[in-house]
Amino acid sequence: MSVATQEATPAAAKPAKKKTKRGPEHRPGLNRWLPYLLLAPAVLAELLIHIIPMVVGIWMSFIKLTKFFIANWSAAPSAGLNNYKVALDFNNAVGEGLLKSFGVTVAFSLITVALSWVLGMAAAVALQPPFRGRGIIRTFFLVPYALPAYAGILTWNFMLQRDTGAVNHVLNQLHLSDGRTFWLIGSNALVSLIVVATWKLWTFAFLTLMAGLQSIPGDLYEAASVDGAGNLRQWRNITLPSLRPVNLVLVLVLFLWTFSDFNTPYVLFGTAQPPAGDLITFHIYNASFLTWNFGTGAAMSVLLLIFLMIVTGAYLLVTGRRSRRA
Amino acid sequence: MRLRSLVAAVAATAMGISLAACGGGDKNDSSGGGSGGDQTLTYWASNQGTSLDNDKEVLTPVLQKFTQDTGIKVNLEVIGWNDLQTRIQTAITSGQAPDVVNIGNTWAASLQATDAFLPFDGDAMGAIGGKDKFVPTALATGGKEGTDPTSVPLYGLAYGLYYNKAMFAAAGLQPPKTWEEMVTDAQKLTVPAKKQWGMALAAGSYTENVHFAFINAAQNKADWFDADGKPTFTGDGNVQGVLRYLDLMQKDKVANPSNAQYDNGTKSVNDFATKKVAMVINQNNADSSIVANGMKAGEYGVVPFPAPSGAEQVASHVAGINLSVFKNTKHKDAALKFVKYMTDEATQTTLGKPFSSLPVLKDAKPVFTTDAAEAATFQDVYNTKSKPLPLVPAEDQFESTVGKAMNSMFAKIATGGTVTADDVKAALKTAQDQVAAGS
């Protein structure tokens, strides 16, 4: 392969394998296409996984895709803005349901993100100074994140059963309740949902914040303690500002994940989802699949997309402006 | 340079693979292995036995016999009830469908409306043995009235009130003949000290709940749809019917509030089989579960689910499982042969016992139980006291919206709330609006 001959021969004249010393500049064809070739799989995947389904979803939201047409989509008549009108008419059952579900989801997301962040931060800071067994505890904390979501949530489902669940049993043994609380139906469903989602999510916050903490120079803390700053003061004046870039991204990601969480309610409640735990993605799923009205479902999805884009945009705008001012 | 060519080669290969994968997806035969001359049908069966595995065990020898007779192989998949409807929807939407599928017969008119299923017109009906072999009421569930049905009956089912003979004897009670008697008996048999309840309800299962909404309303002579297929959910008979059923837990307190979390009928049947409750209202396929849980035939009896005195004697809907063929099947003839085989007298007799089903064929005798009185009761309910669910395209929406509304109302009752007739009416109004928005 590496026998070099006939250096002067024009590149195009002979098969490439004989011209091993020739640099890439001698093969303009491949050179020009190589970057595109390398990018192609990613672009293709992006198209297939994100862009095309999104466009199809938006298109679906403008057609009357009910059970009469799902076998032959192309025959579905245009619905104009009707699907959106139905979804946004809050005096109607469908719109009212969507609005309630939206409210539940906002409350759920805010509480879950706040809890996850506080727990993650507390654990990351607590495990920052080296001590015996730190590695084991850190690993232990990551278990919920490593566990398959389905298995974890299903276990919670067993634990939260009224008559046979571990939660009621423990509460009863501790004399905190009569052990007959319903956790998966009625208004407690939201509490259960928040607990399970936080359990699943907080380790991610923990992991991210722990990584962020590693980049803060130890000198800062030393200097601060020489100046007499206590732990809380150090956390407020050194840790928090240093972690600002991490926090900005972390909170946004946590919020987006939580807001569009589908697995947790789906696995936790099965087909008997209670109104108090009616998260919006699950609500849209039900609106589409139970009533076979994929057009309205798609319109709701597009509305959700728009809402999340507005929130994300506003968040980045506000936090970005503040960073620049700082 | 070597590295570059290597990278380029890898990239090109990766792209090639992904392209091939896309291409493969399109070309993929929807009926699963239709290439070449060998005939393989894909068959989705519903869960009729005590478990998905049990279904597989029961069906495998039956399907093997079909392969021996005809040379047509059958690829079986048993699908649980929680997933079946979604799986069928996905199959319709994507076109990636099996050849033959079991459906709940109440979905027949809704699925017919999708135009994804083969109508059993004169030819197709002839190929499976003619419509005269079926019990007419069973066949009537196959699709909208006055059209070629897109499904034919496979297993017949009906509701009955199962009661524990020993518990009734100990309390000196006779099996109830009216709703009022049923409630009084249930109250006498609710003994908190023994953790014994009068009845078990699958109050968290929307499919079970909606059946009782239908039956109780039918006893009140109320309908859920008018002649034009428009929903009439908020009528007084419907509201009172739903409330009567909810009151079993709310006012009469004969069911454990925990039942609000029972999301399928098996759970309430298990309570009955393990003697925690004295009565359960279930379709006759409960037999296999009851026996599997250790209760012997003869320890329980069955009477028709009673109506209030003076009300219409409706004890069940015409329940059951139908068989449908997807229109886009590449093996239409083989599929029809298979439907014929499954609805043949011999196959029906073989499957009637393990699946505890009522015969859908004229002149056939029930074989699911050795208890002659039980067999006679169910046959009588099926033939004379059953009303078909509305055969309208929106039937499935009726099931999901009204059923889920009842789940929520049971949940409210179980967690200490009160549900009044006005609440029921409001909930049914919401359900009706949802149905209207979907059609």
Automatic annotation (TrEMBL), chain A:
InterPro entries: ABC_transporter_permease (IPR051393), MetI-like (IPR000515), MetI-like_sf (IPR035906). One of its GO terms (biological process) is transmembrane transport. It is a multi-pass membrane protein. SUPFAM superfamilies: MetI-like. It is found in: Cell membrane. Keywords: Cell membrane, Membrane, Transmembrane, Transmembrane helix, Transport. Residues 102-315 form the ABC transmembrane type-1 domain. The chain crosses the membrane at residues 36-60, 106-127, 139-160, 180-202, 242-260, 298-318. Residues 1-26 are annotated as: Disordered. It comes from the Bacteria. Gene3D superfamilies: MetI-like. Coiled coil: none annotated. The keyword Transport applies. One of its GO terms (cellular component) is plasma membrane. Belongs to the binding-protein-dependent transport system permease family. This is Carbohydrate ABC transporter membrane protein 1 (CUT1 family).
From TrEMBL, chain B:
Pfam families: SBP_bac_1. Residues 1-20 form the signal peptide. InterPro entries: Bact_solute-bd_prot1, SBP. Keywords: Signal. CDD domains: PBP2_TMBP_like (cd13585). It comes from the Bacteria. SUPFAM superfamilies: Periplasmic binding protein-like II (SSF53850). This is Carbohydrate ABC transporter substrate-binding protein (CUT1 family).
